[in-house]
Amino acid sequence: MVLSYDSIMAVNQLIMVAFGSWYIIRLPHKAQSTWWFAAFFVGMLLSSTGFLVETLIPTGSESAYALQVVLNVAAMGCLVQMVYHLPLNDQPGEQRTMLLLWFVLLGIALVLLLLIVAAPLGMVSLPTSVSLNLLSLLLPLMLGLSIVVMVRRTIALSGYWRRPERSVKGMVWVLLHPVGRNAIMVRAFLVMLLLSTLPMTLILLHHMLSTAVPFGGYLTAMSIVCFYLGMFLVFLHYGGEASSFLERVFCVALVLLLGLFGIVTLMTTGMRNEQFQQKRGWQVALVEQALIDNNLSKLPAEVAYNSAY
Fold first, then answer.
1. What's the rounded Cα separation, in Å, for the pair 169 and 167?
2. What is the pTM of this model?
């Protein structure tokens, strides 16, 4: 069995479902941050469901990939807002600025998605690969925006801006030694985000230098898995009050059930991918033989139908 990129993304979806369910059950539903996380959770669930469908039914659809990227960008924006709604008296101007940046990035993503959809229809001449590359760059921008938000939250929650004396050294010291439970939680979230995005940063640098990336797909997928797993561990340790015994049993059962489903998905995905590659190789061989013999009747049914169309 070959562990594919889509297989890892399927496991990522299972981790996210387990964490999202636990978070929504555990935290008070009246908190505004809970609703932002619910939006984040739904967006990422829809996106990773696309990866799971691609695992079971490989199509290679560029439009499906573009839609997944747009949902990721929207979900990252919800994550930024969730962190912003931690207990703190925010300045309205700063809040509006971050919300405006989020809408601008999401708007760019939607425009690029429309270009990708319109290209096959002949409405625009922009190559699809160019649109996909531009669309993919929005994810690092949203990650960078999230990191900036968390750095500022850590400093603000530690009470640094209320101090009479401020300096760069004092700001760095607050980041290393935050004061208060909320500040420590956001700092842990920030460290987790930085560690999980290091592999993606390496891939981006290799791409800019036009060099091959060893195990690029695996590094990207594993970084996303680390991102969600880190979210689960951070909020499990720092977030909210203790859950009831029934909620704990439910969450443990959910994690075990989804973990078992993840193992089954890994096993079936390896077999399906192998069968898909064998079928594609068989069709290519038949097409080559039909062209050599100049006999189109030997073409596979799918190829013959597309050629006639």
1. 5
2. 0.49
